[in-house]
Amino acid sequence: MATVVELPLEVYQGAVEPDWCPGCGDFGVLRALELASQKLGLRTKDIFLVSGIGCSSNLPGFFHAYGVHSLHGRAVAVASGAKLANHELHVVITGGDGDGYGIGLNHFIHAMRRNLDLTYIVMNNQIYGLTTGQASPTTRVGHKTKSTPRGNVELPINPVALALVSGATYIARGFSGENKHLADLIGGGIAHHGFSLVDVFSPCVTYNKINTHQFFRQHCYKLQDDPGYQTSDYDSALKKSFEWDDKKIPIGVFYKGEQLTYEDSEPALKKGPLVRQPLPVEKGLFDELVEEFY
Ligand code: SF4
């Protein structure tokens, strides 16, 4: 086993200070990602962060690594392309529930069924924060928001259950107020070979006055505190994914399985990352193709 050389935490800190509202849960997620990267001994040149649009999608700007702030709901698609171009990179997607489970839901499902080796961290605050407090795909029934003044009538998406039935092979849920626990979940996701989802309760202190830090502190419990819970047991994970009542909400690793990744199965990638393979097109033809698309 290779020796892990932990780098100082400052190595991962971006030059720009986060502009999130004071108390926003996303600060805890950023710190957890730094801690996870440190613990895994990742070098910043090997990390590629991709985000969509939203408050949480600003995260790549605050972390020192390669990154791209892409289009609304398209982060998973951009990340899939980056991974296929260079599958030696640690490609981590960061974004919110509206971006990932609403606008980008289609890409999310297809990336999971392909089991691409990507890590998706969704800062799930159950509201649209950047656009000032409309109901999102994970807003609970009855929640009064700007767009649902008489209470939300739509059933929320269940990201853990959706990931389980769509083929993700590492599925976890954390809480941004449980920093070290969250860092372990994220680190587990990055180390995992296959698609990993880390859904994170990351409270929006400005627009969600129900699902607050205090709410999650009171209700969350850790799956791994039960020594009998087996992350390899798919049926138990599915059952647990529907557990959400007034008293307890599970966090931790729900499921971990092994399956061939898309990269392992794709013959074109067997000779190594595409970025290092010669382009099998003559220069004249290459110039013609570029000209055509210019
Ligand atoms: Fe965070 Fe909400 Fe402020 Fe956005 S609006 S930065 S999600 S607290």
The residue ranges in which pLDDT falls below 50 over 5 or more consecutive positions are none
What is the correct CATH architecture? 3-Layer(aba) Sandwich
Determine the number of helices (DSSP H or I, runs of at least 4 residues). 10
Shape designation? globular
Mean pLDDT equals 96
Please sum up the structure shown.
By secondary structure, the chain is of the alpha/beta class.
Detailed description of the structure:
The protein is an alpha/beta fold and 294 residues long. It has a single domain, classed as Thiamin diphosphate (ThDP)-binding fold, Pyr/PP domains (Rossmann fold), CATH 3.40.50. It is built from 10 helices and 8 strands. Strands 2-1-3-4-6-5-8-7 form an 8-stranded mixed β-sheet, with helices on both faces. The termini are far apart. The structure holds iron/sulfur cluster. Residues 20-21, 24, 26, 55, 125, 129-130, 204-207 line the site of iron/sulfur cluster.
Write the layout of secondary structure elements.
Blueprint: H1 26-40, E1 47-51, E2 66-69, H2 75-85, E3 90-96, H3 97-103, H4 105-114, E4 119-124, H5 159-166, E5 170-175, H6 179-191, E6 196-201, H7 213-219, E7 220-222, H8 234-241, E8 249-256, H9 262-265, H10 283-293
Parallel strand pairs: 1-2, 1-3, 3-4, 4-6, 5-6, 7-8
Antiparallel strand pairs: 5-8
Residues 20-21, 24, 26, 55, 125, 129-130, 204-207 line the site of iron/sulfur cluster (SF4).
Write a concise keyword list for the protein shown above.
alpha/beta; eight-stranded mixed sheet; 10 helices; Rossmann fold; about 290 residues
